[in-house]
Design goal:
243 residues; mainly alpha; 3-stranded mixed sheet; elongated
């Protein structure tokens, strides 16, 4: 659950027209981005690399080249559950990318290794995102209660308080998503550069990697646009409540 539902209940105070203008397009964008990354990944997951190096080996090579020796590469379950844990110093790769040697697997694995490199060199945007994680987690956990409260409370001072709390949560989430964009694009740029520089992939193989990572980046763009749209929508609701 999220504050998204606030808009269509009487307690949320939103209008159907406002919902159609601000919210529906972002929902369509998110669905399109998710479909794009899924179809692109599946396409290049079927294209093997000539070197047959696995994703785990590629990630290890990128980190080794950057002088990183304290990050453990682990295998996790799930589809595209790959991530870098800066606190636990772990680089988690899904089974298909840990063991796979496809262009998609190598691209994703090298991308996550790019985050490890960012951490080592103290990349500013990554440090900012890490600093925002605690408050972002709080905002995300508060939103369901805001939605539930708006469902039962129609009008009055408390309803206005819930709206303001929802706005505050979306300010945090939007800022987090904004900072995430350069972090993700930079990690992809590092991945593409290292895969060629280390001889893991040839230049002609990079088309698949670039398309896979570019498609994945769209999901982060969609997440930012979605958060920003909800924030603008809730701000318009607040403005309307004062008229």
């Amino acid at each position: 659950m999220s504050i998204d539902t606030l808009a269509i209940y009487p307690g949320g105070g939103g209008s159907i027209m406002g919902y159609l203008i601000f919210i529906v397009p972002t929902f369509i964008l998110a669905m399109w981005a998710q479909s794009k990354v899924s179809s692109t990944y599946n396409k290049y997951a079927r294209v093997p690399s000539r070197g047959r190096i696995t994703g785990a080996e590629a990630a290890a090579a990128v980190m080794r080249n950057a002088g990183i020796s304290d990050v453990k590469i682990i295998q996790v379950r799930g589809h595209l559950t790959d991530h870098y844990d800066p606190i636990g110093k772990k680089l988690a790769l899904s089974e298909e990318n840990y063991n796979g040697s496809s262009l998609a697997a190598l691209g994703v694995a090298a991308h996550e290794a790019g985050h490890a490199v960012q951490h080592k060199i103290g990349y500013g945007a990554l440090k900012a995102r890490m600093a925002l994680v605690p408050i972002t987690n709080i905002a995300s956990s508060v939103l369901p209660f805001v939605m539930i409260g708006s469902f039962f409370i129609i009008g009055g001072a408390f309803s206005l308080t819930l709206l303001k709390l929802g706005i505050l949560c979306y300010v945090v989430l939007t800022l987090f998503q904004l900072i995430t964009l350069p972090v993700e694009y930079d990690a992809s740029a590092r991945a593409k550069k290292e895969l060629v520089a280390l001889g893991i992939l040839g230049n002609d193989e990079m088309v698949g990697v670039e398309k896979t990572l570019n498609a994945a980046a769209l999901t982060y763009v969609a997440a930012f646009v979605s958060s920003l749209s909800y924030l603008i929508y809730l701000l318009s609701m607040l403005g309307g409540s004062r008229d």
